[in-house]
Amino acid sequence: MRQKDDFSRRQVLGKGLGAASAVLLGAVRVRAQDTRPTTVPVADLRCGMIGIGGRGSDLLSAVNQSPGVRVTALCDINPKHLQAAAEKVKDDRPRLFEDYRKLIEFKDLDAVVIATPVYLHAEMSVAVLNGGLHLYCEKPLGMTVKDCRAVLKAAQSAKGIYQGGTQLRYAHPWQSSIKLILSGEVGRPIFIRAHRHNVGDLPHDRQWLFEKRHCGDTIVEQAVHEFDLFNWILGGPPVRASGFGQQSLRFEPKGRDIMDNYALSLDYGKDKKVSYSHSWISAPKIPMDGRQEIVYCEEAAVDIENAMVYPRNFGEPYKVAPPEPAGDSTQLAIDDFFRCIREKRKPLASVQAGFDGAMAAILGRQSIEDGRVVTMEELLKEG
Ligand SMILES: NC(=O)c1ccc[n+]([C@@H]2O[C@H](COP(=O)([O-])OP(=O)(O)OC[C@H]3O[C@@H](n4cnc5c(N)ncnc54)[C@H](O)[C@@H]3O)[C@@H](O)[C@H]2O)c1
Protein backbone atom coordinates (compact mmCIF):
# COMPACT_ATOMS: atom_id res chain seq x y z
CA MET A 1 0.00 0.00 0.00
CA ARG A 2 2.63 2.47 1.07
CA GLN A 3 4.81 1.70 -1.96
CA LYS A 4 2.03 2.44 -4.38
CA ASP A 5 1.37 5.63 -2.46
CA ASP A 6 5.05 6.47 -2.78
CA PHE A 7 4.86 6.05 -6.54
CA SER A 8 1.92 8.33 -6.97
CA ARG A 9 2.51 10.82 -4.20
CA ARG A 10 6.26 10.88 -3.74
CA GLN A 11 8.23 9.36 -6.60
CA VAL A 12 6.16 11.28 -9.10
CA LEU A 13 6.10 14.53 -7.15
CA GLY A 14 9.62 14.56 -5.77
CA LYS A 15 12.25 11.87 -6.18
CA GLY A 16 13.98 10.47 -3.05
CA LEU A 17 16.19 12.79 -1.12
CA GLY A 18 19.41 10.86 -1.59
CA ALA A 19 21.97 10.00 1.05
CA ALA A 20 23.56 13.38 1.66
CA SER A 21 24.32 13.71 5.35
CA ALA A 22 24.82 16.99 7.13
CA VAL A 23 27.12 17.27 10.15
CA LEU A 24 27.20 20.32 12.38
CA LEU A 25 30.76 21.53 12.93
CA GLY A 26 30.68 24.53 15.25
CA ALA A 27 28.10 26.64 13.48
CA VAL A 28 28.91 25.51 9.94
CA ARG A 29 27.29 22.62 8.12
CA VAL A 30 29.51 20.45 5.95
CA ARG A 31 27.94 18.06 3.47
CA ALA A 32 28.91 14.62 2.30
CA GLN A 33 28.00 13.32 -1.19
CA ASP A 34 26.55 16.61 -2.28
CA THR A 35 27.02 18.44 -5.55
CA ARG A 36 25.99 21.84 -4.20
CA PRO A 37 28.63 24.46 -3.26
CA THR A 38 30.84 23.50 -0.33
CA THR A 39 30.95 27.07 1.01
CA VAL A 40 27.84 27.30 3.14
CA PRO A 41 26.55 30.07 5.37
CA VAL A 42 27.07 29.97 9.12
CA ALA A 43 23.93 28.46 10.66
CA ASP A 44 21.81 31.58 10.79
CA LEU A 45 18.24 30.30 10.64
CA ARG A 46 16.29 28.28 13.18
CA CYS A 47 13.39 26.17 11.97
CA GLY A 48 10.50 24.36 13.64
CA MET A 49 8.31 21.63 12.15
CA ILE A 50 4.60 21.04 12.82
CA GLY A 51 3.31 17.62 11.67
CA ILE A 52 6.04 15.05 11.08
CA GLY A 53 4.21 12.14 9.46
CA GLY A 54 4.90 10.94 5.91
CA ARG A 55 5.44 14.24 4.14
CA GLY A 56 6.74 15.99 7.25
CA SER A 57 9.58 13.43 7.49
CA ASP A 58 10.63 14.18 3.90
CA LEU A 59 10.55 17.90 4.64
CA LEU A 60 12.48 17.41 7.87
CA SER A 61 15.26 15.65 5.91
CA ALA A 62 15.30 18.54 3.43
CA VAL A 63 15.43 21.19 6.18
CA ASN A 64 18.12 19.21 7.95
CA GLN A 65 20.21 19.23 4.79
CA SER A 66 19.63 22.87 3.93
CA PRO A 67 22.78 24.98 4.38
CA GLY A 68 22.89 27.13 7.49
CA VAL A 69 19.65 25.90 9.06
CA ARG A 70 19.14 24.33 12.50
CA VAL A 71 16.04 22.40 13.52
CA THR A 72 15.25 23.84 16.95
CA ALA A 73 11.66 22.71 17.54
CA LEU A 74 9.40 19.82 16.57
CA CYS A 75 5.67 19.35 17.11
CA ASP A 76 3.34 16.41 16.54
CA ILE A 77 0.37 15.03 18.46
CA ASN A 78 1.65 11.51 17.78
CA PRO A 79 4.48 10.80 20.29
CA LYS A 80 5.97 8.10 18.04
CA HIS A 81 6.29 10.52 15.12
CA LEU A 82 7.73 13.15 17.44
CA GLN A 83 10.38 10.80 18.85
CA ALA A 84 11.34 9.45 15.41
CA ALA A 85 11.77 13.01 14.15
CA ALA A 86 13.81 14.04 17.21
CA GLU A 87 16.12 11.09 16.58
CA LYS A 88 16.75 12.30 13.02
CA VAL A 89 18.01 15.69 14.18
CA LYS A 90 19.46 14.87 17.57
CA ASP A 91 22.58 16.99 16.91
CA ASP A 92 20.38 20.09 16.90
CA ARG A 93 18.71 19.09 20.23
CA PRO A 94 15.25 20.38 19.22
CA ARG A 95 12.57 21.19 21.82
CA LEU A 96 9.58 18.87 21.50
CA PHE A 97 5.96 20.03 21.60
CA GLU A 98 2.57 18.37 21.35
CA ASP A 99 0.69 21.66 21.11
CA TYR A 100 1.55 23.74 18.04
CA ARG A 101 0.65 27.00 19.81
CA LYS A 102 3.43 26.38 22.31
CA LEU A 103 5.90 25.86 19.46
CA ILE A 104 4.91 29.23 17.97
CA GLU A 105 5.59 30.91 21.35
CA PHE A 106 9.04 29.29 21.56
CA LYS A 107 11.71 31.99 21.25
CA ASP A 108 14.46 30.05 19.47
CA LEU A 109 12.74 30.11 16.04
CA ASP A 110 12.76 32.06 12.75
CA ALA A 111 10.72 29.79 10.49
CA VAL A 112 8.16 26.99 10.62
CA VAL A 113 7.29 24.16 8.23
CA ILE A 114 3.73 22.77 8.45
CA ALA A 115 2.86 19.30 7.12
CA THR A 116 -0.34 18.44 8.98
CA PRO A 117 -3.63 17.18 7.48
CA VAL A 118 -5.29 19.72 5.19
CA TYR A 119 -8.12 20.82 7.53
CA LEU A 120 -5.49 22.25 9.92
CA HIS A 121 -3.52 24.29 7.37
CA ALA A 122 -5.46 27.56 7.54
CA GLU A 123 -5.71 27.76 11.33
CA MET A 124 -2.03 26.89 11.82
CA SER A 125 -0.78 29.11 8.98
CA VAL A 126 -2.59 32.16 10.34
CA ALA A 127 -1.19 31.49 13.82
CA VAL A 128 2.39 31.10 12.54
CA LEU A 129 2.20 34.22 10.35
CA ASN A 130 0.59 36.28 13.12
CA GLY A 131 3.39 35.04 15.40
CA GLY A 132 5.90 36.90 13.19
CA LEU A 133 7.54 33.75 11.79
CA HIS A 134 8.38 32.72 8.23
CA LEU A 135 6.20 29.88 6.96
CA TYR A 136 6.49 26.97 4.53
CA CYS A 137 3.11 25.22 4.52
CA GLU A 138 2.26 22.09 2.60
CA LYS A 139 -0.31 22.35 -0.16
CA PRO A 140 -3.17 23.12 -0.39
CA LEU A 141 -3.34 26.57 1.19
CA GLY A 142 -6.77 25.66 2.62
CA MET A 143 -9.99 23.75 1.95
CA THR A 144 -12.56 26.54 1.71
CA VAL A 145 -12.68 30.03 0.22
CA LYS A 146 -13.06 31.51 3.71
CA ASP A 147 -10.00 29.69 5.07
CA CYS A 148 -7.88 30.58 2.05
CA ARG A 149 -8.86 34.24 2.33
CA ALA A 150 -7.79 34.22 5.98
CA VAL A 151 -4.34 32.84 5.08
CA LEU A 152 -3.92 35.29 2.19
CA LYS A 153 -4.82 38.21 4.46
CA ALA A 154 -2.50 37.07 7.25
CA ALA A 155 0.38 36.56 4.78
CA GLN A 156 -0.10 39.95 3.16
CA SER A 157 0.35 41.76 6.47
CA ALA A 158 2.90 39.36 8.00
CA LYS A 159 6.50 40.10 8.93
CA GLY A 160 7.53 36.70 7.60
CA ILE A 161 7.23 35.20 4.13
CA TYR A 162 4.78 32.46 3.08
CA GLN A 163 5.87 29.67 0.73
CA GLY A 164 3.47 26.93 -0.36
CA GLY A 165 4.37 23.26 -0.74
CA THR A 166 3.99 23.09 -4.52
CA GLN A 167 7.56 21.92 -5.05
CA LEU A 168 7.13 21.05 -8.74
CA ARG A 169 7.67 24.75 -9.45
CA TYR A 170 11.28 24.34 -8.35
CA ALA A 171 12.59 21.47 -10.43
CA HIS A 172 13.14 19.91 -13.80
CA PRO A 173 11.19 18.86 -15.86
CA TRP A 174 8.30 21.10 -14.81
CA GLN A 175 10.17 24.35 -14.21
CA SER A 176 12.34 24.16 -17.33
CA SER A 177 9.41 23.14 -19.57
CA ILE A 178 7.25 25.95 -18.24
CA LYS A 179 10.04 28.50 -18.55
CA LEU A 180 10.38 27.51 -22.22
CA ILE A 181 6.62 27.99 -22.74
CA LEU A 182 6.61 31.34 -20.92
CA SER A 183 9.57 32.55 -23.02
CA GLY A 184 7.21 32.53 -26.04
CA GLU A 185 9.64 30.39 -28.06
CA VAL A 186 6.86 27.95 -29.03
CA GLY A 187 4.07 30.52 -29.24
CA ARG A 188 1.22 31.18 -26.82
CA PRO A 189 -0.19 28.26 -24.77
CA ILE A 190 -3.76 27.60 -25.93
CA PHE A 191 -4.94 24.28 -24.55
CA ILE A 192 -3.75 21.86 -21.86
CA ARG A 193 -4.71 18.19 -21.81
CA ALA A 194 -3.73 16.57 -18.54
CA HIS A 195 -4.47 13.63 -16.29
CA ARG A 196 -3.38 11.84 -13.16
CA HIS A 197 -4.59 8.23 -12.95
CA ASN A 198 -3.27 6.33 -9.97
CA VAL A 199 -2.94 2.60 -9.53
CA GLY A 200 -3.50 1.16 -6.03
CA ASP A 201 -4.96 3.37 -3.35
CA LEU A 202 -4.20 6.10 -0.87
CA PRO A 203 -2.54 4.87 2.35
CA HIS A 204 -5.24 3.40 4.60
CA ASP A 205 -3.36 4.32 7.80
CA ARG A 206 -4.25 7.99 7.18
CA GLN A 207 -7.99 8.20 7.72
CA TRP A 208 -8.08 11.97 7.17
CA LEU A 209 -7.17 11.47 3.47
CA PHE A 210 -10.47 9.67 2.87
CA GLU A 211 -12.81 12.21 4.45
CA LYS A 212 -13.87 15.32 2.60
CA ARG A 213 -14.20 17.33 5.77
CA HIS A 214 -10.53 16.64 6.57
CA CYS A 215 -8.84 16.69 3.15
CA GLY A 216 -11.17 18.80 0.98
CA ASP A 217 -11.57 15.82 -1.41
CA THR A 218 -8.90 14.48 -3.78
CA ILE A 219 -9.37 17.38 -6.17
CA VAL A 220 -8.24 19.81 -3.47
CA GLU A 221 -5.70 17.64 -1.62
CA GLN A 222 -3.91 16.27 -4.67
CA ALA A 223 -4.80 17.90 -7.99
CA VAL A 224 -3.82 21.29 -6.60
CA HIS A 225 -0.28 20.48 -7.84
CA GLU A 226 -1.59 20.36 -11.42
CA PHE A 227 -3.85 23.40 -11.02
CA ASP A 228 -0.86 25.36 -9.76
CA LEU A 229 1.06 24.44 -12.93
CA PHE A 230 -1.92 25.31 -15.18
CA ASN A 231 -2.27 28.69 -13.44
CA TRP A 232 1.43 29.38 -13.83
CA ILE A 233 1.35 28.54 -17.55
CA LEU A 234 -1.90 30.36 -18.29
CA GLY A 235 -1.20 33.45 -16.19
CA GLY A 236 -3.72 33.17 -13.33
CA PRO A 237 -6.66 31.08 -12.09
CA PRO A 238 -9.57 29.84 -14.28
CA VAL A 239 -12.70 31.96 -14.76
CA ARG A 240 -15.11 29.02 -14.75
CA ALA A 241 -15.25 25.25 -14.40
CA SER A 242 -17.52 22.39 -15.31
CA GLY A 243 -17.06 18.80 -14.21
CA PHE A 244 -18.49 15.45 -13.23
CA GLY A 245 -17.22 13.04 -10.62
CA GLN A 246 -18.23 10.00 -8.61
CA GLN A 247 -17.27 7.37 -6.10
CA SER A 248 -17.73 4.17 -8.02
CA LEU A 249 -15.17 1.52 -7.03
CA ARG A 250 -13.34 2.43 -3.84
CA PHE A 251 -15.39 2.41 -0.63
CA GLU A 252 -12.75 1.46 1.96
CA PRO A 253 -11.75 2.48 4.56
CA LYS A 254 -14.98 3.10 6.47
CA GLY A 255 -16.15 6.71 6.31
CA ARG A 256 -14.61 7.27 2.88
CA ASP A 257 -16.57 9.92 1.02
CA ILE A 258 -14.01 11.28 -1.46
CA MET A 259 -14.38 10.90 -5.24
CA ASP A 260 -12.42 8.12 -6.87
CA ASN A 261 -12.72 9.63 -10.33
CA TYR A 262 -13.73 12.87 -12.01
CA ALA A 263 -13.27 14.84 -15.23
CA LEU A 264 -13.08 18.59 -15.38
CA SER A 265 -13.04 21.38 -17.98
CA LEU A 266 -11.44 24.65 -16.96
CA ASP A 267 -11.92 27.89 -18.86
CA TYR A 268 -9.07 30.35 -18.39
CA GLY A 269 -10.53 32.91 -20.82
CA LYS A 270 -10.11 33.43 -24.56
CA ASP A 271 -7.88 30.80 -26.21
CA LYS A 272 -6.98 29.20 -22.85
CA LYS A 273 -8.75 25.93 -22.01
CA VAL A 274 -7.86 22.86 -19.91
CA SER A 275 -9.19 19.32 -20.01
CA TYR A 276 -8.20 17.33 -16.89
CA SER A 277 -9.12 13.96 -15.42
CA HIS A 278 -8.04 12.33 -12.18
CA SER A 279 -8.76 8.94 -10.67
CA TRP A 280 -7.77 6.30 -8.14
CA ILE A 281 -9.18 3.46 -10.21
CA SER A 282 -6.47 2.89 -12.76
CA ALA A 283 -5.17 -0.60 -13.49
CA PRO A 284 -1.48 -1.51 -13.71
CA LYS A 285 0.40 -1.62 -17.03
CA ILE A 286 -1.77 0.85 -18.97
CA PRO A 287 0.86 2.66 -21.08
CA MET A 288 -0.92 6.03 -21.09
CA ASP A 289 -1.75 6.19 -17.36
CA GLY A 290 0.10 7.85 -14.51
CA ARG A 291 0.58 11.59 -14.96
CA GLN A 292 0.71 13.58 -18.14
CA GLU A 293 0.42 17.27 -18.95
CA ILE A 294 0.54 18.27 -22.61
CA VAL A 295 0.54 22.00 -23.27
CA TYR A 296 -0.53 22.82 -26.84
CA CYS A 297 1.04 26.09 -27.95
CA GLU A 298 0.81 27.97 -31.25
CA GLU A 299 4.04 26.50 -32.64
CA ALA A 300 4.49 23.23 -30.73
CA ALA A 301 3.08 20.96 -28.02
CA VAL A 302 5.12 20.54 -24.84
CA ASP A 303 4.96 17.44 -22.65
CA ILE A 304 5.97 19.06 -19.38
CA GLU A 305 6.23 15.79 -17.44
CA ASN A 306 8.86 14.50 -19.85
CA ALA A 307 10.35 17.85 -20.97
CA MET A 308 9.69 17.07 -24.65
CA VAL A 309 8.76 19.56 -27.36
CA TYR A 310 6.80 18.41 -30.44
CA PRO A 311 6.90 21.08 -33.20
CA ARG A 312 3.62 21.59 -35.06
CA ASN A 313 5.51 21.79 -38.42
CA PHE A 314 6.47 18.09 -38.20
CA GLY A 315 10.05 19.03 -37.18
CA GLU A 316 11.99 16.62 -34.97
CA PRO A 317 10.79 16.48 -31.36
CA TYR A 318 13.45 17.69 -28.91
CA LYS A 319 14.20 17.67 -25.18
CA VAL A 320 14.07 20.75 -22.98
CA ALA A 321 17.51 21.22 -21.43
CA PRO A 322 17.60 20.61 -17.66
CA PRO A 323 18.71 23.54 -15.50
CA GLU A 324 21.99 23.56 -13.58
CA PRO A 325 22.16 22.51 -10.82
CA ALA A 326 19.48 19.84 -11.10
CA GLY A 327 18.12 18.25 -7.94
CA ASP A 328 15.27 16.87 -5.91
CA SER A 329 12.22 19.14 -6.12
CA THR A 330 11.55 19.14 -2.36
CA GLN A 331 15.17 19.95 -1.49
CA LEU A 332 15.26 22.74 -4.09
CA ALA A 333 11.98 24.20 -2.77
CA ILE A 334 13.16 24.10 0.86
CA ASP A 335 16.58 25.57 -0.01
CA ASP A 336 14.87 28.40 -1.88
CA PHE A 337 12.56 29.05 1.09
CA PHE A 338 15.56 29.79 3.31
CA ARG A 339 17.26 31.75 0.52
CA CYS A 340 14.13 33.92 0.16
CA ILE A 341 14.21 34.62 3.91
CA ARG A 342 17.86 35.67 3.78
CA GLU A 343 17.48 37.70 0.60
CA LYS A 344 14.06 39.12 1.61
CA ARG A 345 12.65 37.82 -1.66
CA LYS A 346 9.11 36.74 -2.57
CA PRO A 347 8.94 32.93 -3.08
CA LEU A 348 8.06 31.47 -6.46
CA ALA A 349 5.37 29.39 -4.72
CA SER A 350 3.95 32.61 -3.26
CA VAL A 351 0.85 32.95 -1.13
CA GLN A 352 -1.02 34.33 -4.18
CA ALA A 353 -0.01 31.27 -6.23
CA GLY A 354 -1.17 29.04 -3.36
CA PHE A 355 -4.46 30.93 -3.13
CA ASP A 356 -5.06 30.72 -6.90
CA GLY A 357 -4.23 26.98 -6.94
CA ALA A 358 -6.62 26.30 -4.07
CA MET A 359 -9.33 28.44 -5.73
CA ALA A 360 -9.03 26.46 -9.00
CA ALA A 361 -9.45 23.22 -7.03
CA ILE A 362 -12.37 24.52 -4.95
CA LEU A 363 -14.03 25.87 -8.12
CA GLY A 364 -13.70 22.46 -9.77
CA ARG A 365 -15.07 20.72 -6.66
CA GLN A 366 -18.04 23.10 -6.53
CA SER A 367 -18.92 22.51 -10.19
CA ILE A 368 -18.78 18.73 -9.67
CA GLU A 369 -20.89 18.91 -6.49
CA ASP A 370 -23.48 21.19 -8.17
CA GLY A 371 -23.36 19.45 -11.57
CA ARG A 372 -23.18 22.78 -13.42
CA VAL A 373 -20.83 25.47 -14.67
CA VAL A 374 -19.56 27.55 -11.74
CA THR A 375 -17.75 30.84 -12.27
CA MET A 376 -14.87 32.11 -10.15
CA GLU A 377 -16.77 35.35 -9.67
CA GLU A 378 -19.72 33.62 -7.98
CA LEU A 379 -17.42 31.37 -5.94
CA LEU A 380 -15.54 34.37 -4.55
CA LYS A 381 -18.79 36.29 -3.96
CA GLU A 382 -20.33 33.45 -1.97
CA GLY A 383 -17.19 32.29 -0.15
N1 LIG B 1 3.93 18.25 -1.69
C1 LIG B 1 3.79 16.95 -1.79
O1 LIG B 1 4.25 16.31 -2.73
C2 LIG B 1 3.02 16.22 -0.73
C3 LIG B 1 3.07 14.81 -0.65
C4 LIG B 1 2.35 14.19 0.36
C5 LIG B 1 1.59 14.94 1.26
N2 LIG B 1 1.55 16.30 1.14
C6 LIG B 1 0.77 17.13 2.09
O2 LIG B 1 1.41 17.08 3.36
C7 LIG B 1 0.44 17.16 4.40
C8 LIG B 1 0.60 15.97 5.34
O3 LIG B 1 0.39 14.78 4.61
P1 LIG B 1 1.03 13.40 5.13
O4 LIG B 1 0.87 12.45 4.02
O5 LIG B 1 2.36 13.65 5.70
O6 LIG B 1 0.02 13.03 6.31
P2 LIG B 1 0.35 12.18 7.63
O7 LIG B 1 -0.95 11.79 8.20
O8 LIG B 1 1.36 11.12 7.30
O9 LIG B 1 1.09 13.23 8.58
C9 LIG B 1 0.42 14.23 9.26
C10 LIG B 1 1.10 14.44 10.61
O10 LIG B 1 0.47 15.54 11.28
C11 LIG B 1 0.30 15.17 12.65
N3 LIG B 1 -0.78 15.98 13.25
C12 LIG B 1 -2.12 15.83 13.10
N4 LIG B 1 -2.77 16.77 13.81
C13 LIG B 1 -1.82 17.54 14.40
C14 LIG B 1 -1.86 18.66 15.28
N5 LIG B 1 -3.03 19.19 15.68
N6 LIG B 1 -0.69 19.18 15.70
C15 LIG B 1 0.51 18.65 15.31
N7 LIG B 1 0.60 17.58 14.51
C16 LIG B 1 -0.55 17.03 14.04
C17 LIG B 1 0.01 13.68 12.60
O11 LIG B 1 0.20 13.06 13.86
C18 LIG B 1 0.98 13.22 11.53
O12 LIG B 1 2.24 12.91 12.08
C19 LIG B 1 -0.90 17.24 3.70
O13 LIG B 1 -1.25 18.57 3.55
C20 LIG B 1 -0.65 16.66 2.32
O14 LIG B 1 -1.52 17.18 1.35
C21 LIG B 1 2.26 16.93 0.18
Features:
alpha/beta, Rossmann fold, Dihydrodipicolinate Reductase, domain 2, single chain, 383 residues, globular, binds nicotinamide-adenine-dinucleotide, 9-stranded mixed sheet, 34% helix, 6-stranded parallel sheet
The shape, in one word, is globular
Known CATH architecture of the largest domain:
3-Layer(aba) Sandwich
Instruction: Quickly give the structural class.
Output: alpha/beta
Give the averaged pLDDT, no decimals. Answer: 90
What's the short version?
With 383 residues, the protein is an alpha/beta fold. Helices cover 34% and strands 23% of the residues.
What does this structure look like?
The structure is a single chain. With 383 residues, the protein is of the alpha/beta class. It has 2 domains: 2-168 and 329-349, 3-Layer(aba) Sandwich (Rossmann fold); 169-327 and 358-382, Dihydrodipicolinate Reductase, domain 2 (2-Layer Sandwich). It contains 13 helices and 17 strands. The protein has helices at residues 2-11, 54-64, 79-88, 100-105, 121-130, 145-156, 174-183, 212-215, 218-221, 224-234, 329-343, 351-370, 376-382; strands at residues 22-25, 28-31, 45-50, 69-75, 95-97, 111-114, 134-137, 162-164, 189-199, 240-246, 261-267, 273-282, 290-297, 300-303, 308-311, 318-319, 374-375. Strands 16-15-14-13-9-12-11-10-17 form a 9-stranded mixed beta sheet. Helix 6 (145-156) runs antiparallel to helix 12 (351-370). The protein is globular and about 60 Å long. The two termini are 37 Å apart. The model is unreliable at 1-38 (pLDDT under 50). Bound molecules: nicotinamide-adenine-dinucleotide. Nicotinamide-adenine-dinucleotide binds next to helix 2.
